[in-house]
């Protein structure tokens, strides 16, 4: 629901948000995954609905309830997420990649459960690269003027890593989070800097994920074609 003072600056717009973390199966019972809860992406979807947008949420393995008013597409793997995001992006004004997409997946999927063998060491798990959805969206905009936003969780030289990543990915905005043991994953709050391709940097103070989501839409709205 729109609160008093919520802008309707996304009215008539279609926005796509990816959320959660992909899981890359090894066998019918096991996967390679990550700790993304989906909370930031779901907050982006809810705030975009509140600001008047038509929202497609591509949700990877999140246990959160579907946000009211959004079209939710549930996916498992990075390959499935790519397919769903590219399909929804075809007529989108903006795409926000908040999902944690696995960089690699197991090279082989075992149709039967992998068993241990008496006296044998395990085989190493061979991995292959997954497609980079954000780079692909940025390089081949489905619509002229489509705004593409990425997220990056960094450690160490957070800002320098973020600037290099923004340039490498070719997106319009990159939301950079510093991660640590008690920061970001599964938490209700976030702290970030939003880097833009025009060189501007918007610090976002420690606060709820909804507040960061609203800052992202505040930066997306004036960039819409
Ligand atoms: N991303 C993506 N497809 C991938 C990997 C990442 O679309 N295969 C997107 C994420 O959704 C996020 C952004 O790219 O919006 C940055 O993800 P990140 O993991 O920080 O970037 P990488 O290029 O994978 O760099 P790193 O080697 O640091 O993991
Ligand atoms: Ca990565």
TrEMBL record:
Catalytic reactions on record: (R)-4'-phosphopantothenate + L-cysteine + CTP = N-[(R)-4-phosphopantothenoyl]-L-cysteine + CMP + diphosphate + H(+); N-[(R)-4-phosphopantothenoyl]-L-cysteine + H(+) = (R)-4'-phosphopantetheine + CO2
The EC number(s) this enzyme carries: 4.1.1.36, 6.3.2.5
Kindly indicate whether the keyword Flavoprotein belongs to this entry: yes
Q: Keywords on this record? A: Decarboxylase, Flavoprotein, FMN, Ligase, Lyase, Magnesium, Metal-binding, Multifunctional enzyme
Metabolic or biological pathway: Cofactor biosynthesis; coenzyme A biosynthesis; CoA from (R)-pantothenate: step 3/5; Cofactor biosynthesis; coenzyme A biosynthesis; CoA from (R)-pantothenate: step 2/5
Cofactor binding notes: Binds 1 FMN per subunit.
GO molecular function, one example? ligase activity
In residue numbers, the region (Phosphopantothenate--cysteine ligase) covers 15-225
Question: For the DNA/pantothenate metabolism flavoprotein C-terminal domain, which residue ranges apply?
Answer: 10-221
Record keywords: Phosphoprotein included? no
Query: What cofactor(s) does the depicted protein rely on?
Result: Mg(2+); FMN
Binding-site residues, CTP: 103, 113, 131-134, 151, 165, 169
Q: What is the stated purpose of this protein?
A: Catalyzes two sequential steps in the biosynthesis of coenzyme A. In the first step cysteine is conjugated to 4'-phosphopantothenate to form 4-phosphopantothenoylcysteine. In the second step the latter compound is decarboxylated to form 4'-phosphopantotheine. Catalyzes two steps in the biosynthesis of coenzyme A. In the first step cysteine is conjugated to 4'-phosphopantothenate to form 4-phosphopantothenoylcysteine, in the latter compound is decarboxylated to form 4'-phosphopantotheine.
User: What protein family is recorded?
Assistant: In the N-terminal section; belongs to the HFCD (homo-oligomeric flavin containing Cys decarboxylase) superfamily.
Q: What is this protein called?
A: Coenzyme A biosynthesis bifunctional protein CoaBC
Species source reads Streptomyces luteosporeus
Query: Which gene is the coding source of this polypeptide chain?
Result: coaBC
Complete-protein stretch covered:
177 to 401 of 401
């Amino acid at each position: 629901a729109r609160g008093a003072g919520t802008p309707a600056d996304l009215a008539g717009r279609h926005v796509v948000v990816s959320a959660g973390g992909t899981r890359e199966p090894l066998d019918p019972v096991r996967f390679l995954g990550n700790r993304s809860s989906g909370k930031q992406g779901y907050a982006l979807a809810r705030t975009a609905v509140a600001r008047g947008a038509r929202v497609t949420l591509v949700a990877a393995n999140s246990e959160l309830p579907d946000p009211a008013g959004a079209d939710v597409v549930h996916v498992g793997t990075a390959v499935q997420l790519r397919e769903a995001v590219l399909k929804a992006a075809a007529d989108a004004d903006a795409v926000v990649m908040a999902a944690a997409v696995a960089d690699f997946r197991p090279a082989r999927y075992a149709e039967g459960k992998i068993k241990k063998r008496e006296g044998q060491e395990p085989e190493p798990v061979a991995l292959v690269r997954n497609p980079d959805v954000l780079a692909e969206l940025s390089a081949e905009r489905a619509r002229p003027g489509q705004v593409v936003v990425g997220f990056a969780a960094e450690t160490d030289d957070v800002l320098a890593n973020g600037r290099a990543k923004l340039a490498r990915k070719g997106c319009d905005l990159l939301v950079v989070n510093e991660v640590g043991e008690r920061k970001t994953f599964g938490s209700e709050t976030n702290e970030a800097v939003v880097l833009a391709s025009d060189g501007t940097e918007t610090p976002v103070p420690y606060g709820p994920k909804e507040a960061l989501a609203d800052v992202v839409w505040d930066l997306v709205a004036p960039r819409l074609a």
